[in-house]
Specification:
Largest sheet: 3 strands, antiparallel
Strand order of the largest sheet: 1-6-3
Distance between the termini: 40 Å
Number of strands: 10
Number of helices: 12
Order of helices and strands: HHHEHEEEEEEHEEEHHHHHHH
Helix content: 40-55%
Number of domains: 2
Structural class: alpha+beta
Shape: elongated
Radius of gyration: 23 Å
């Protein structure tokens, strides 16, 4: 395991808070996600994002599973020329993903009376597609409607990396800071019990990503690939909401990335976000307890 994150030179002692105060703070943070998503939903940025997103097909579950088996972080896929029409170019050397298409073949046959009858038979050709992460804007200076997120740039990991890494290792996982490939920030491989965090990320963004991946584990999202594929939007909404809440509890703000991420995966449905509160807050408190194990003891001693 290699680590490229910055070490904290000192840890500021936070004022003790009671468990009730911590729960109230977490609930306020979670509600603020819904509020910020509602504001984003009314913006020109969201309108442009929707116009871009509407250009893509809704794939069958079989094709979704097929796509994820080839590229687990895939978000939007389209053919080579479709990407060009959307102002993006597939990078040279990128490997196509393969999915099943659908078409019909018209055949003229004779029926039992000897009359010509036209029939259509279904066909399922194999089609090449590419994920958005395999493309670049044709005009890099133009506004990019495909994303609602901005990377975090802070140089402090806020004590997250070492604490969560130690927890995962103690539970039989490995944590690697390397290049995840496929233009990902991180991923969890439940079969190998491995969490990978992008070495290209700032320490602050790496911390947020590690919280996000641990949230997937705590919430049980990594247990069944089929269920994840069916409910991916909800699960990504939950995991990033946990990351936002936990980050807020330990002292940093991930809104620049998290709000757009949650909006994209939830279709900016504030009611959906609010409906996840119980699961998100339970998981957030579990993760926060790893990062601030002394808070409850300090509060009790006051």
């Amino acid at each position: 395991m290699t680590t490229t994150t910055a070490k904290r030179t000192g840890k500021t002692r936070r004022p003790a808070v009671t468990p009730e105060q911590r729960k109230e703070q977490a609930a306020t943070l979670h509600e603020s996600i819904a509020t910020q998503v509602e504001a984003l939903r009314d913006s020109d940025r969201w309108t442009a994002f929707l116009q871009f997103a509407s250009a893509f097909h809704a794939y069958s579950l079989n094709n979704v599973l097929l796509i994820l088996s080839q590229r687990s972080d895939a978000e939007r896929v389209a053919g080579f020329r479709k990407w060009q029409a959307l102002g993006r170019q597939v990078r040279k050397g990128e490997k196509a993903l393969r999915i099943f298409g659908y078409s019909t073949k018209k055949v003229t046959e004779q029926d039992e009376n000897g009359d010509d009858v036209e029939k259509r038979y279904p066909r399922f050709p194999i089609l090449p597609v590419f994920d958005i992460a395999q493309t670049d804007p044709i005009d890099p200076d133009a506004d990019d409607p495909s994303t609602l997120t901005a990377p975090l740039t802070g140089a402090d990991d806020h004590g997250v990396i070492d604490a969560l890494t130690a927890h995962l290792v103690a539970d039989g996982w490995t944590v690697e800071h390397t290049e995840p490939g496929q233009h990902r920030n991180g991923f969890t491989d439940p079969e190998a019990r491995r969490v990978v965090i992008g070495s290209h990320l700032s320490p602050e963004h790496a911390a947020k990503t590690l919280i996000h991946e641990l949230a997937h584990i705590v919430l049980g999202h990594t247990d069944d690939l089929t269920e994840y594929a069916e409910h991916r939007g909800l699960m990504e909404t939950e995991a990033e909401s946990v990351a936002y809440v936990v980050a807020g509890l330990v002292g940093f703000d991930t809104a620049a990335y998290s709000v757009g991420y949650v909006a994209g995966w939830s279709d900016a449905d504030a009611d959906l976000i609010r409906s996840t509160a119980a699961r998100v807050l339970k998981a957030a408190h579990q993760v926060a307890a790893i990062l601030t194990p002394d808070d409850d003891d300090e509060a009790a001693a006051e």
